[in-house]
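Quick start: what a row looks like.
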Amino acid sequence: MTTTERPAADIVFDHVTKRYPGQEEPALDDLSLTIPAGETCCLVGPSGGGKTTAMKLVNRLIDFESGDITIGGESIRSVDVTTLRRDIGYVIQQVGLFPHMTIAGNIGVIPNLLGWSRDRIKKRTEELLDLVRLDRGFATRYPAQLSGGQQQRVGLARALAVDPPVMLMDEPFGALDPITRTEIQDEFLNLESEISKTVIFVTHDIDEAIKMGDRIAVLRQGGVLAQYGTADELLAHPADDYVADFVGADRGLKRLSLRRMREVVGGDGAVNGAAAVATDAPAVDAEASLRIGLSTLFASGAPAVRVTDGDRLLGTVTLDQLQHAVAGSAA
């Protein structure tokens, strides 16, 4: 498997405003935020909130009237637009594979344009198929021969073909069925641990943003930034009623998905209490979220769950410990 050769770059929106002709209100109004190199920023908000507009400004699919956007400290307006776009991976909901080209041909579109040799393109295609967990035999197939989830993996591979420092993802998993969507989300999170990219991820789904984003930008109607921060910051301390309503009344439960069971085991008698719990008490993997732990507790009616790492018992966690864990991190 290949290693990343080109480092991720930070993206800075500096007082960016975009107005469309014939509209009184701006699509994006004085947006300022910084996405650190190597992090994923999810843009969420209502229809008309400017999230897709903000993303498309980065690769100059559309232009803006005032302010600036820099990538790695360089203004995007100082870079030739063709060069800029070739250095930015782009993944969309409809995937956009060329139906008359093989999977290898689709992945190799940009490398071909850049004049890579046939051997280099073949090697890179094989690396990327491995990276997105597709058999190398898929290289000779056509998009119509693949499932929706497989096509989305190919779309990711194509976006990564020339190892861009930045990726733009426009509701990339929105058209997938729930099971496939969860699978591809998990695969992308695993992929992030192997590559270093700065990602702007547009979604209308706050739960997806919480799962996928290192940071979340909540936009309100008219392209105004309502709050920008980590998922935990937004869920624990929403800036106003709008953000609180947007993240949902169940934001306490949503916060449970941000922490792992192994973080709660130990201390407060958790390990010492293991002996007091019946051996048939439900077991939860140490890497499961606190939300999974809570669900298991409710479903079983048990006083505690056993937290395991493989065959090893780490300890137990009770309902009180889950509640204290969330309350403590809210402070």
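That is the whole record. The radius of gyration is 22 Å. The longest strand covers residues 11-18.
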